[in-house]
């Protein structure tokens, strides 16, 4: 029992934090040893199980990342960019696997995560589900097979509490489409059309975001040409798919060499 890897969940009171805590608790392959929240959070000092409205589980919510990360083998982190950068530094110092589901990083943030990955294993993906990661591979193949007569548009929909757009998943799909076409996404990305935008530019990849209600996450990759259209679609109806993927990444990362990995590595979906 005590040989099982100890996992800390950050942002434990969040939508994903709660789902992750339940998923790790239910797993016979890992132990939940810590739950982290931001300083001053009302759950601090309470048992996580009772704070979530259930039975006591013997894990006290803390706001001290240093202490709890030092006791762990893995940190699973679905919070916000600034928090994740702080945890990445601590996980690198402690040589602890850091599984990052957080989205909304800018280029400077990503450089800092690359630096942290020189010292510890980081597994990061804007979407940890099997289905979306498979969809990225399909997107790359379809984009490689079609020419620029097919306009690529990515449409995503999420709940009304989401703070970043386009979603991390939409950006993964955009990267996959650009890679399939042999171009850099930053050179062809169309985001936030509004007003007199001019005609669509050939070869560009467009992004649109819908926000409403409790939508868990929906993504379409549209390849639209004159007279025909291909739509690749993923619909998430349960956050458990992300939590299961994150736990799988956590177990996969144990014992690996320091570096940056993603779910394509974890799931073995890369091309040889
Ligand atoms: N990769 C994937 O598969 C998925 C990624 N996500 C991403 O995960 C992230 C979280 O999503 P979601 O759970 O819906 O968001 P929530 O807002 O529900 O949860 C985020 C949690 O992180 C906490 N938090 C923020 N800063 C800190 C800090 N410094 N220390 C400790 N805790 C902190 C928040 O606390 P407070 O409320 O006090 O701010 C909150 O409890 C988002 O970036 C989202 O896009 C979501 C689903 C799947
Ligand atoms: O914030 C969310 O909820 C989600 N975020 C991820 C993203 O930005 O793509 C993954 C999933 O779609 C849910």
The CATH homologous superfamily name of the largest domain equals NAD(P)-binding Rossmann-like Domain
Distance between the termini: 37 Å
Order of helices and strands: EHEHEHEHEHEHEHHEEEEHEH
Total domains = 2
CATH class of the largest domain: Alpha Beta
Bound small-molecule species? NADPH dihydro-nicotinamide-adenine-dinucleotide phosphate, ligand LZUJQKHR
- What is the number of E strands? 12
Rough outline: elongated
User: In CATH terms, what is the fold-level topology of the largest domain?
Assistant: Rossmann fold
Pfam families: DapB_C, DapB_N
GO molecular function: 4-hydroxy-tetrahydrodipicolinate reductase; NAD binding; NADP binding; oxidoreductase activity, acting on CH or CH2 groups, NAD or NADP as acceptor
Organism: Roseovarius azorensis
Family: Belongs to the DapB family.
Task: Describe the protein.
The protein is of the alpha/beta class and 272 residues long. The chain folds into 2 domains: 6-124 and 239-267, Rossmann fold (3-Layer(aba) Sandwich); 130-236, Dihydrodipicolinate Reductase, domain 2, CATH 3.30.360. The chain has helices spanning 15-26, 48-51, 65-70, 81-94, 107-116, 130-145, 168-181, 185-188, 240-253, 263-267; strands at residues 6-10, 31-36, 61-62, 74-77, 97-100, 121-124, 151-158, 189-191, 205-211, 217-225, 228-236, 259-261. The strands form 2 sheets. Strands 3-2-1-4-5-6-12 form a 7-stranded parallel β-sheet, with helices on both faces. Helix 4 (81-94) links the parallel strand 4 (74-77) and strand 5 (97-100). The longest helix is centred in the middle third of the chain and has 16 residues, at 130-145. The chain is elongated and about 60 Å long. It starts with 5 loop residues before the first strand and ends in a 5-residue tail after the last helix. Bound molecules: NADPH dihydro-nicotinamide-adenine-dinucleotide phosphate and the ligand O=C(O)C1=N[C@H](C(=O)O)C[C@H](O)C1. Residues 103, 126-127, 158, 162, 167-169, 217 line the site of ligand LZUJQKHR.
């Amino acid at each position: 029992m005590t040989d099982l890897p100890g996992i800390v969940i950050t942002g434990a009171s969040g939508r994903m934090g709660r789902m992750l805590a339940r998923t790790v608790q239910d797993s016979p392959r890992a132990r939940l040893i810590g739950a982290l929240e931001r300083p001053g959070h009302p759950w601090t000092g309470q048992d996580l199980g009772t704070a979530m409205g259930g039975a006591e589980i013997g894990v006290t919510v803390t706001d001290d990342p240093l202490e709890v990360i030092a006791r762990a083998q893995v940190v699973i982190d679905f919070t916000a960019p600034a928090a994740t950068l702080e945890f990445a530094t601590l996980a690198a110092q402690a040589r602890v696997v850091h599984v990052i589901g957080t989205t909304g990083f800018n280029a400077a943030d990503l450089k800092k995560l690359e630096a942290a990955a020189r010292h510890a294993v980081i597994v990061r993906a804007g979407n940890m589900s099997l289905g979306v990661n498979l969809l990225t591979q399909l997107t790359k193949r379809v984009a490689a097979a079609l020419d620029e007569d097919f306009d690529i548009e990515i449409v995503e929909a999420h709940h009304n509490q989401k703070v970043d757009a386009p979603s991390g998943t939409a950006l993964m799909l955009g990267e996959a489409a650009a890679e399939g076409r042999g171009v850099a996404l930053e050179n062809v990305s169309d985001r936030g059309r509004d007003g007199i935008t001019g005609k669509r530019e050939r070869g560009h990849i467009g992004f649109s975001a819908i926000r409403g209600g409790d939508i868990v996450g929906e993504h379409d990759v549209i390849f639209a040409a004159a007279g025909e259209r291909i739509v690749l679609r993923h619909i998430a109806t349960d956050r458990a798919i992300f939590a299961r993927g994150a736990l799988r990444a956590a177990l996969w990362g144990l014992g690996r060499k320091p570096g940056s990995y993603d779910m394509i590595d974890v799931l073995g979906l890369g091309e040889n």
